Amino acid sequence: MDPTQLIMSNAKKILLVDDDTDLLELLSMRLKSSGYHITTAASAEAALNHLDITRPHLVISDIQMKEMDGMALFEQIHRTTPTLPVIILTAFGTIPDAVAAVQRGIFGYLTKPYDPKILLSQIERAMTLSSGVTSGVQPSATNSRGNDWKSNIVTQSAIMEDLLVKVELVAQKDASVLLHGESGVGKELFARAIHQGSNRHDQPFVTINCAAIPEYLLESELFGHVKGAFTGAVRDHAGLFQLAEGGSIFLDEIGDMPLLLQVKLLRALQERTIRPVGSNEDISIDVRVISATHKDLRAEIATGNFREDLFYRLFVVGLTIPSLAQRQEDIPLLANYFLRVFAQKHQKSINALSPEATNFLLTSPWPGNIRQLMNVIEQSVVMSTIPIISEELVRDAIHKDETQISSFEQARKQFEREYLVRLLKITSGNVTQAAKLAKRNRTEFYKLLNRHQLDYSLYKSQQVNA
């Protein structure tokens, strides 16, 4: 990359709005000389068009403009992007309006003619709010490592850029975070970004899918158990909360956690202690909890499936991850990013997607979101015999992917059945040996076999026939 491009990509972005083009150009030149990346708009309407495309770190707008004025522009920005700071430039006669605007949430105002030093000071303070850069104090963990915390999140979407600002602000605090979004939107990616952007980034980041582990195992996985706690507990086992000590734990699909375990999780969060299964002693914990769900937890509370008190413990800060349909402008960017990744992984010389393939991606529904898009691109890369991915390959991969996607519950049942069959084959139908390999007692193992209607005696006859 050209060094000047690198400087521009790292520069803080400011959107200037003024219908006086001479003043707009003068202010633009002044701020560019101070190292800022400047975009100009000669009207509030033009400014809103810019904001639809990309998100600056700061908006500076004149208050008196034709059609939509600076205050109306601020109201529009504040409604859709409340974390984006706005500075208003005002003439002497409109100072009372500007003061009232500050009370309504505007970042600040400057009177014309403004003092350049005061302007730069205001901008620097606004950048602190927008990007977490703190002036005059020791840099936080987030900023001492630049943008490393979000390096795996690929986007050019304004809605995503706004979300990333919120993520950075949230990361620097230690509050519990609840992420909501459809399956496949990348909730774990955002949970990891929150952890990486926090002061806990050097400590463990531990994940668990609450829907993927049977209820009788989940408590032990979270809180651990002591030797002899149950059949098969031959040694002490540290739970994930202990493994995450000093760091963060990500509880994915928290909406599927059984009610009895919700009570124990609530106690752990309230008292900052856990009690391993079979133990009489509490263990203190210092762990940040980040949770996620695709369910409407308020609806789950109404039906009695989720505890309201636990919800408010988890929902100190809530962030919604947009679906791929809400960030369509990211589809070509993500598709090309995945293309490079999978071309390298599968050692194939593939350079690009054809324009027709890109257009097909843009017009396709994505019920599986980014996970589905990634799968489609990998299938296309694997099957391609030329350097450019064709529309036919993409179309075929999407249709195959649609037929292959099954519900999580179906996938789990299939895995569990295949696992049991494999154990029975290995042990030739010896339930005692199979249960030992699975680290389950015989009673639990028989229940699993009955659930999947597996007849262990058939595998004994297999041994005789062999």
**pLDDT under 50 segments (min length 5)?**
1-9, 132-145, 462-466
CATH superfamily of the largest domain: P-loop containing nucleotide triphosphate hydrolases
CATH architecture of the largest domain: 3-Layer(aba) Sandwich
Distance between the termini: 65 Å
How many domains make up the 3D coordinates? 4
How many helix segments?
22
Structural class: alpha/beta
What is the percent of helical residues?
40-55%
CATH topology of the largest domain: Rossmann fold
Q: What is the CATH C level class of the largest domain, in words?
A: Alpha Beta
- In terms of DSSP E residues, the strand content is 5-15%
Radius of gyration: 28 Å
What overall form do the CA principal axes indicate? globular
Average of pLDDT:
83
Modified residues (4-aspartylphosphate): 62
InterPro entries: AAA+_ATPase, AAA_lid_NorR, CheY-like_superfamily, Homeodomain-like_sf, P-loop_NTPase, Sig_transdc_resp-reg_receiver, Sigma_54_int, Sigma_54_int_dom_ATP-bd_1
Pfam families: AAA_lid_14, Response_reg, Sigma54_activat
GO molecular function, one term: ATP binding
